[in-house]
Amino acid sequence: MIGVLAAASGRGVGSGLFRELERWARAHEIHRLELTVMAHNRRARHLYERAGLAVDGRRRECLRVEGNVADEL
Predict the structure, then answer these.
(1) What is the distance between the alpha carbons of residues 32 and 25, in angstroms, rounded to a whole number?
(2) Interior CA angle at 13 toward 10 and 21, to 5°?
(3) For residues 1-17, b (16+ Cβ closer than 10 Å) or e, as one string?
(4) How far apart are CA 23 and CA 9, in angstroms?
C-alpha cells in the first residue's frame, strides 16, 4: 500500500512513485500491475489515468468509510 500525504499532493510525488514502480517492474519482468482505489478518490484516479492505467471493474459498496459505503475500482 502506498499513499501521498495531503501536504505533498500536487508536487509530483505520486507520479515519481509510479515511474519508479514501472522501472522496478520492467527490471523484474513483471507483466501486469494492479491496484485498487476508492471510486470517489478523484485525485488518485486522475494520477492513475495519467500513468496509463485503466479500470478493469468496480466492486460496488464493498467498503465502509466513515460510516458511508463506497465503491472500489
Answers:
(1) 8
(2) 140
(3) eeebeeeeeeeeebeee
(4) 22
Place of cell 505520486: 14
pLDDT tens column, 15-42: 898 899 899 999 999 999 888 999 999 9
Note the pTM of the prediction, 2 decimals: 0.76
Residue 37 has phi, psi (to 5 degrees) of -150, 145
The CATH label, of 3.10.20.880, 3.40.630.30, 3.40.50.1970, 1.10.460.10, for the domain at 6-72 is 3.40.630.30
